Amino acid sequence: MSRKKVVETLRWRRGRLELLDQTLLPDKIRYRPLKTYHEVSRGIRDMLVRGAPAIGVTAAFGMALAARSGARLRPAAFRRHMQKAGKVLASSRPTAVNLFWALQRMGRLMEENAHLAPAVMAEKMEAEALAVLSEDIEINRRMGRNGASFIEDGDVILTHCNAGALATAGYGTALGVVRAAWEQGKRISVLADETRPRCQGAKLTAWELSREGIPVTVIADTAAGSFLRRGKVQKVVVGADRIASNGDVVNKIGTYQVAVLARENKVPFYVAAPVSTIDFSLKSGDEIPIEERPPSEVTTMAGRRITPRGVAAFNPAFDVTPARFVTAIITEKGAVRKPFRRSISALRPRRR
Ligand code: MRU
């Protein structure tokens, strides 16, 4: 893989955050500079940046920006300012747990260093956000290596949504598995579900794989079952926005039907996600809040209305895939299988 073609999802430049505006892909590569935590929250909500790990890393920089802007406040006022920033950032999107994971990590750093002057704290917050970013890339590489062992030479891999470099700080989760297998010399190819309504598969997965020369073909979401039934797919690999402690997986709307169809056709269904995507506090996927996005994402395509005027539309952004449909969950600490309650609890971090 030619490294120079790997794109940066987000970057920190001279004290401000630059987000690759994913709403403009695949047509334009444009970075949006963000200077305040309010701008960061809007960037997440409006999906300039998206994908669970990328949202987490972005939120960490949101807290770093908040600390920077409050560095001259007195300690008590600084604390209130940071609490408000945490609340605003937490309200950006509800489903991907990595957002809350990153905010908790930044909040813990504040608590552990409560004695420090705000200006010093601001520097620490910036360093921590940079650590979250570089750790995410390293975690994805490890996850990729762990997952590549499931992929065989010649496999066609079906994926849904975009769980790639664009959904993380780099390399990707599900597409990290694809990249690692490709780097090992396996001749594989990817079938990308287009992923209506926002078409992350057609726009983003197809874009990032094709520019690296990894064979990718886009199919309509409605075609996935037919490809699975005709034996055209050897593995399904997807990412996750939140995983409950029983192994239920919440991911982009449409993942559930792919998982059921994979089971029906005896095709392994893998989920690649970092441990930070596991919500150990939840017993099952039914407890995970599912974001409802504007109906206009369904009633329009490429800015044009496609449904009759006045007809309603529902737009849940995610669904729950029950654990029984999941062959294995691939993490940076290794792959876990059923019974998930036991195997997932062994992944629980002791600290941080
Ligand atoms: O609404 P999005 O684009 O943020 O949804 C993204 C997904 O569902 C991804 O599959 C998931 O976050 C995993 S990303 C590594």
The amount of beta strand, in percent, is 15-25%
What name does CATH use for the topology of the largest domain? Rossmann fold
**CATH top level of the largest domain?**
Alpha Beta
Instruction: Give the name of the CATH superfamily of the largest domain.
Output: Translation initiation factor eif-2b, domain 2
Kindly give the count of domains. Answer: 2
CATH architecture of the largest domain: 3-Layer(aba) Sandwich
Q: Please outline the major beta sheet.
A: 7 strands, mixed
Roughly how much helix do the residues carry, as a percent range? 25-40%
What does this 3D model show about the protein?
It is a single chain. This protein is of the alpha/beta class and 352 residues long. The chain has two domains: 131 residues, Four Helix Bundle (Hemerythrin (Met), subunit A) (Up-down Bundle); 203 residues, Rossmann fold, CATH 3.40.50. Helices cover 39% and strands 16% of the residues. A seven-stranded mixed beta sheet has the order 6-5-4-7-10-15-16. α2 packs antiparallel against α3. The longest helix has 31 residues. The two termini are 33 Å apart. The structure holds 5-S-methyl-1-O-phosphono-5-thio-D-ribulose (MRU). 5-S-methyl-1-O-phosphono-5-thio-D-ribulose binds next to α2 and β9.
Present the secondary structure layout.
Elements: E1 10-13, E2 16-20, E3 31-34, H1 37-45, H2 52-69, H3 75-90, H4 97-112, H5 118-148, E4 156-159, H6 174-183, E5 189-193, H7 200-210, E6 216-219, H8 224-229, E7 235-238, E8 242-244, E9 249-252, H9 255-264, E10 269-272, E11 278-279, H10 296-299, E12 300-301, E13 304-305, E14 318-321, E15 328-331, E16 334-336, H11 340-345
Parallel strand pairs: 4-5, 4-7, 5-6, 7-10, 8-11, 10-15
Antiparallel strand pairs: 1-2, 2-3, 8-9, 9-14, 12-13, 15-16
Helix pairs in contact: 1-2, 1-3, 2-3, 2-4, 2-5, 3-4, 4-5, 5-6
